[in-house]
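Friendly challenge for the regulars: who can give me the C-alpha cells for this chain first? No prize, just bragging rights.
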Amino acid sequence: MNENTKPDETALSLLKGCPVIRIIGVGGAGGNMVDELAADPMPGASCLAVDTDLQALSRRSRAATLVLGADVTRGLSAGGDPKIGRAAAEADEEQLQQWCEGADLVFLLAGLGGGTSSGASPVAARAAKTAGALVLGLAAMPFEFEGSRRQRQAILGLARLRQEADAVVCVPNQQVFHACEASRPAAEVLAAANRSLAGAVRGLWRLLARPGLVNLDFGSLRAALAGHHSESWLAAAEAAGDTRAFEVWERLSHCPAFQAGRALAEAESVLVSFAGGPDLAMMEIEWIMSQIKELAGNASLLFGCAVDESLAGRLEVTLLASRFGEMPAESSASASDSATEPVAAPTEVANRLTDQNTIRPRSRCVPPPPEVSQEKARQLYRRQAGRNRRKRDNSMQAMLPLEVFSKGRFENTVPTIHNGQDLDYPTYLRWGITLKTN
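First reply, four minutes later:
Bragging rights claimed.
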C-alpha cells in the first residue's frame, strides 16, 4: 500500500457528526471511477484503488493504491481469471480490513466481468463488513459485445458480491450505451459509464454530509439497508433554472440505473434526498415526490432536504431504491473455504441483466460425449427407437446412432433455462427428434 493511504479523518468526522466514508475501486473500471472521485475531494471520504496489475495502478495519480496478491501474480494482471483475482485479494484481505477500520460506510466500485473485479470484489466487501462498516456495492456489468464468458463471470461475481455486501447497485453498461448517441466515440461512452456510478456516489455523499432541513442521516441509511443483502438502484441528477424540477425528473427517468421506472416499481424502500439553495421551493419538492410515489406504489419512502448557499439556483436529487433479498444460506467463512469452487448464480439474476429470452448465445464448441456403459447406451437407443417406431409409416427410416451429449466444459456452469428447457442441449435431443439420412 502506498503512503498516506489511510487518512486520519475519523476523529474529524466524529466531531462534525458526519459518517466516515471509504471508497474502494476494484480492478480497471473501479480504479477509473475512484480516480475521478478523488479529483474532487469529498470531506470525510477517502479513496483507494486496488488491482493485481501494478502497471495499471501506477497510472492512478489521485487515489491511494494497493497491489493485491503481489506474491500471487507478481504484479501482473489476473489474466481474466476470477479464481486468481480472488486468491490475490484473500492474500491481502487483512490489509483491506485495516484500511476500512473506523469507517461507517464503504462504497465498493467495480466493473464486473474481468478476473480481478469479479474475483476480488466479494473479498473486499467481506473485509469491509468485518471492519464493521455498512457496505454498498456499485457494479457495472459488461457490454453485450464483450462476449458470453465475460458476461457469465460478471453474473457469478455479482451473485457472490450480493452475499457479502448489504446492498448492491447494478448498472448494465449496455444501457449506458443505448442512452448515448450512436456516433459517440468509444472513449466517451466508457467515460459516461464511469461517471454514471461516480456521480451517484457523490450524490449519496452529499445526502449524508450536509445538514438538512428535513434530516436524512446515516442512521436512516443503515436502518434501510443493513443486513438485507438487497438489490438496489442509485441515481442522481441536477439542474438549474426555472424548470429545474422538470429537468431533474427527466434526467432521473433516463438514467441507466433508473431502468425506465423498474427501479421504483419493484422497490420496497425508496430513499430520496433534495439539495438546493435558499430559493428551493416546496412546490418543486412536492411535484417530484408525487412522481416518485406514483411509480413506487406501496414502497416505504424516506425523504430528506438540505439547503446549501453554494447551490443557489440549482436543484440536486439523489434517489436510492432497494428491493430486499434473503440472507445467503452459506456463511462468509464457508464462501471463503469454497473459493475455488464454481458458484451457481440464480437464474433470475441472469434474466434481469438482459432483455433477451436467452442469457447467452449457444456455444460454438461441440461438447464431448460423456462416458457411459455399453448397456446404458443400448437402453437409450432402444428407448429412442421404440418411440420412433410408433410414429413411422410404411417407408423405412434409417436411424443414426445418437450420442448422449453433455455440457462438457460448461457442465458446472449456470444452465441456460428458457420456458423450463435447458438450451445448452441440442434441440433434437430436447424434442426427441430422430435425424434422417439421405
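Residues 186-209 form the longest helix (24 residues). DSSP finds 18 helices and twelve strands in the chain. Your move, everyone else.
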